[in-house]
Amino acid sequence: MINIKENEKLNILNHSCAHLLAHAVKHLYKDAKFWVGPVIENGFYYDIDLGDNVLKEDDLVEIEKEMKKIAKSDKLIKRIELTKDEALEMFKDDPYKVDLINNMSDDEVISAYKQDDFTDLCRGPHMPSTKSMKYFKLLKVSGAYYKGDSKNKMLQRIYGVCFETEEDLNNYLAYLEELKQRDHRKIGKDLDIFMTHELVGSGLPLWLPNGAFIFHELEEYIREKEVKLGYSHVYTPVLATSNLYKISGHWDHYRDDMFPLMEKDGEEFVLRPMNCPHHMLIYKNTLHSYKDLPIRIGELAHDFRFEASGAVCGLERVRTFCQNDAHIFVRPDQIEEEFGRVVNLILDVYKDFDITPTSFRLSLRDKNNKEKYFDDDEMWEKAESMLRKVLTDLKIDFVEAEGEAAFYGPKLDVQVKSAIGHELTLSTCQLDFLLPERFDLTYVDSDRFKRRPVVLHRAILGSIDRFVAYLLENTKGALKTWLAPIQVNILPVNNNYHLDYANEVKKLLELNNIRVQIDDREEKLGYRMRESVTKKIPYTLVLGDNEKEQELITYRKYGSEDKVSVNLNEFTTYLKDIIDNKK
After folding, report:
1. Is-contact 414 426, C-beta < 8 A?
2. What pLDDT, in 10s, does the model give residues 352-363?
3. pLDDT interval class at 257 (50, 70, 90)
4. I need a surface site. Which of 21, 278, 284, 296 has the fewest CB within 10 A?
């Protein structure tokens, strides 16, 4: 979709419509006071103080009616230029506007726009009259802290959008409906994949049986790939003493994102936000020769980070997540080759899931921020150059992002855009010279002297929770057969005559590790067929007289109207091949 903020005509139209919204609100709520109403990528919003009035979605209908009434009256929109004193006098009854004006310089020419009985502070430009705004829609209302600061008062933010033609507006609303249908939170509920509950807490999802199947399949998928590439998997505790993170440096850099300390028997414990300190200790547990490296330690680890309540979003941003984590301990001369292996693994996985990255981002330090990053210029220059060289050698287009590195080293972030427009980091690979120093990690080199290894931190699927959210939105819940919680749904035409055969088919499929269920409810066949489609089950089998007598099955594949009749054994072989080879 078009970026409204960057389109000059739509920008002006939407800015004017924000004022139309405020004008209508002022008519309906006489004591309303206004903060700011900017144009954004997908329309506009206005932050409003309505006192004790709390808007509901239904209230937007009445506001829209008033907006249409004002627009139809074709009020001229006039620009007014004011001195600072004149502006303060004009808006003296609105403390939010007064705050804006007081932050302007004394000699600045301040502009406002007047339409009939409503005047709003604004730089402009605006449409010439209110009749220009015919095709608009108010989309939602939410809370927003004054100046974005949680210490300030909560205002009410109304979102809207405006277009030049009715067709453009309708197309955009249809697009929003498509996004709504693709939202993984809706799909997760419709397909019984996960749930949340206030008694458990915000950002702490509960995986239902269907979701647990998906989760397990992804774990097995990535574990199998990693084992073939020489990774050894471990399990480590979900908590540790605070001293572990003080040694690693995470305590100083990430403490605000960690859950609070737990004190018991004179010790301080915290839920871990990451796994690298644990893996450093596993490496240190054994003496290593230069011949042993690289050593690849992997873990499907559950981590905990205290995300702000406003940032929590379904599975995409949570407070507990399972990370497809690994740490690779290498000699300096192995860095480039091993980093290249990680990049190739990322590309291999993305091919399996039909994922197209939007960008490969080389995240670098901000050289002027000595507090945020480990202070070693030589290390940073060396590490950044190495990663840059590997990406160039692999002919991967990448962008550089200063200030996005981890505190201990530069990293590669692979960015994707979900089907509903969220930009996400799925995979990462970070280069680290610092933690081996902090934990005094060594290996014995060929000259029998002890050397420091270098660590590559990498996550291919990233957070499995976020990966599932991404897959659900991009497939609209129609997962590949190997990943689907239920792969086959069997519909006996008549339970009295065909249920026994349905159970025979089910038993054979289960012997071949195919996930199958029978829908033997006393409902019409058409109803059960439609529900099977709604649940996005890859294969639906219909078993009637002909199938039972000839030991056939008739199946319909999700997304197709074709019905195919084949021998039961032939179907089993066909489906097993699809699942085993992840086609």
Report:
1. yes
2. 999 999 999 988
3. confident
4. 284
Give the model confidence (pLDDT) of 445-468 as tens digits: 999 999 999 999 999 999 999 999
**By C-alpha distance, which of 264, 246, 46, 258 is closest to 139?**
46
Listed in sequence order, the residues at least 6 apart from 348 whose beta carbon sits closer than 8 Å to its beta carbon are 225
DSSP state of 261: P
Query: Parallel, antiparallel, or unpaired: how do β-strands 552-557 and 539-543 relate?
Result: antiparallel
294: cis peptide before it, omega within 30°? yes
Residues 6+ apart with CB under 8 A from 260: 270
Show the tokens assigned to 121: 């502070």
The pLDDT assigned to 373 comes to: 66
List active site positions.
276, 305, 323, 325, 327, 411, 457
Q: Which amino acid is at 33?
A: K
How many Å apart are CA 453 and CA 346, to the nearest integer?
23
Phi, psi for 457 (deg, rounded to 5):
-90, 130
pTM across the whole model: 0.83
pLDDT score of 460: 96
Coil, helix or strand for 300? Answer: strand
Residues 182, 419 contacting (CB under 8 angstroms): yes
User: CA-to-CA distance for 127 and 502, rounded, in angstroms?
Assistant: 67
User: How many angstroms from the chain centroid is the CA of residue 284?
Assistant: 35
